[in-house]
Amino acid sequence: MQKKLKDIGEFGLIKRIAEAERIFDKEVIVGIGDDAAVIKYKEGRYLLLTTDMLIENIHFDKKATPFQIGYKSLAVNISDIAAMGGIPKYALVGLGLKKETSVKFVDEIYRGIRSLAKKFKVKILGGDTVASSKMVINITLSGEVEKKYLTLRNGAKIGDKIYVTGALGGSILGKHLSFIPRVKEARYLVKNLHPTSMIDISDGLLSDLKRVCEASKVGAKIYQEKIPLSKGVISLAKKKKEDPYQLALTGGEDFELLFTLSHHPPLYPLPSREGKAEEGFILPSKVHITQIGQITKRGIVLLDEKNKIIHLRKIGFDHFKDVGS
Amino acid sequence: MQKKLKDIGEFGLIKRIAEAERIFDKEVIVGIGDDAAVIKYKEGRYLLLTTDMLIENIHFDKKATPFQIGYKSLAVNISDIAAMGGIPKYALVGLGLKKETSVKFVDEIYRGIRSLAKKFKVKILGGDTVASSKMVINITLSGEVEKKYLTLRNGAKIGDKIYVTGALGGSILGKHLSFIPRVKEARYLVKNLHPTSMIDISDGLLSDLKRVCEASKVGAKIYQEKIPLSKGVISLAKKKKEDPYQLALTGGEDFELLFTLSHHPPLYPLPSREGKAEEGFILPSKVHITQIGQITKRGIVLLDEKNKIIHLRKIGFDHFKDVGS
């Protein structure tokens, strides 16, 4: 039988493409396999390039407003630039639209894009607009980063502590359409705390942690009860009668930063709350960072409060595989 | 009644976006409104960025092989970089695919992309792959150009001669899936003949000429019988019992270069053929360039061999408008 995409999954496909695409070019620092590509640029700086495609009924549904669709399509790209330690700069917008689409709808998409572009001083330099039976939006974003601040997925070392920004889970409740990409936080981190690795959580904490571990050739242990849960995920779990940690570990589109530090961060510690094992710090932007685990030699394990291994049912979101596989 | 995209058309939409997107950034040389965006880069060079979205049943149909789809999706972007006088460098590939797509089909798309990438030394640096009910492919390409060789749409001057490379029309017969982007020719032109303006013919000769005229604030007269017709368009016109010139003037996706010169090019002239008013030259790559008209003060007119104005039924391809409107 011929292999289908749903058999090898999104990660399988990316690996397949990356393996065929070994790049031998002295100008290319990083090709396929990080949040953005890294290319030689001006003195002391690298150029970053990233692209994301959003499709109707997959990344947004009928309930999403055109403003939200535009906003999200730029936000996911800014998040990728942030995860490299960089500053977003220029965007190109590819839009596939039905002929019957109202001009007002398109204006609203652009209003969403521009509202975020303005906030992060991103300039929209052009794009391509074509007819399509389903709506598609593909934004490509360039950015730049000082060479010394470039932070990749492949630098995590055994013994490093693992942190996340903000709180996880429940992005399905709407946060994925309105989140603020963590540029300010990432810039603070690369300038002051020098993370050994960093990634944005787009496909789920465990899924993206796996990427860091594979790239860094290490393993990780995560203390489940240390994972900062969003208010949304707690109420969602109650409603669905599911474990909120399971939702937070595997839910995609949180767009928080996952990073590793080799040292104790010189920051204000989070006030300890009774009955809560939170261990973290407050960034100057008031966003919390929480230590959720540690880098190990190999394998990814999830531990309960008694340090017992919790079985992982599924590891995250894959565009081509069905949930649970 | 609410305005629909099909009412304002693709050009109407682009104008609408460009007007709202006035850019005041000293790093941006050209934003929306040319074949590629132009940004400050290394000493003596500009960075070029362009993106194109191709959609199933619009830009390719079931008869196109996945190899051809991949090939074309990169070729249209390389053509944009060529039209700026630049050299293509790095590509990002956004792919929307059905879950049922075979892995072999995706491999073939990439084989098509790579075959052309290799020819032009383009490196594929990454991308995004998502599930989609219709196939979508969106390639973003960066390039670079020496400052002195950058050629825009807005430099045509009254009295300049108008040229095209190669022969026009009939791309519908398959050339649009296998054309070789005119990088070599464009590079020769910018280094040796210094065109005052240049564009690639993606939406039809008249349609793209209109863009040059609008950007340069000039007009143009085109001598219909001077237009170099492809063999394909001559046989197609016979079959369809249509005027081959009409097809060549309005057919999209030729991906030849349209450019203007202020002087007589110091090149080998084309051998004159009996009964043929061809007036052109041979580039070192053996590709012909043909003079088809002249830049005027205003308006675009098409003239027959007796210098009489030919009525223009339609001016080119618009993604959102129906043919003939």
UniProtKB/TrEMBL annotation, chains A, B:
GO terms under biological process: thiamine biosynthetic process; thiamine diphosphate biosynthetic process
Gene3D superfamilies to which the protein is assigned, alphabetical: PurM-like C-terminal domain, PurM-like, N-terminal domain
Boundaries of every PurM-like N-terminal domain copy: 33-145
The protein's Enzyme Commission number: 2.7.4.16
Binding site for ATP: Y110, G127, D128, R153, S202
InterPro entries: PurM-like_C_sf, PurM-like_N, PurM-like_N_sf, ThiL-like
Catalytic activity entry: thiamine phosphate + ATP = thiamine diphosphate + ADP
Binding of Mg(2+) 3, residues: D35, D80, D200
Pfam family, one: AIRS
Molecular functions per Gene Ontology: ATP binding; magnesium ion binding; thiamine-phosphate kinase activity
Annotated binding of Mg(2+) 4, by residue: D35, T50, D80
List of residues binding Mg(2+) 5: D203
Pathway field: Cofactor biosynthesis; thiamine diphosphate biosynthesis; thiamine diphosphate from thiamine phosphate: step 1/1
Binding site for Mg(2+) 1: T51, D52, D128
Annotated positions binding Mg(2+) 2: D52, D80
Family, similarity comment: Belongs to the thiamine-monophosphate kinase family.
Note: Reaction mechanism of ThiL seems to utilize a direct, inline transfer of the gamma-phosphate of ATP to TMP rather than a phosphorylated enzyme intermediate.
Job of this protein: Catalyzes the ATP-dependent phosphorylation of thiamine-monophosphate (TMP) to form thiamine-pyrophosphate (TPP), the active form of vitamin B1.
Name recorded for this polypeptide: Thiamine-monophosphate kinase
Taxonomic placement: Bacteria, Candidatus Ratteibacteria
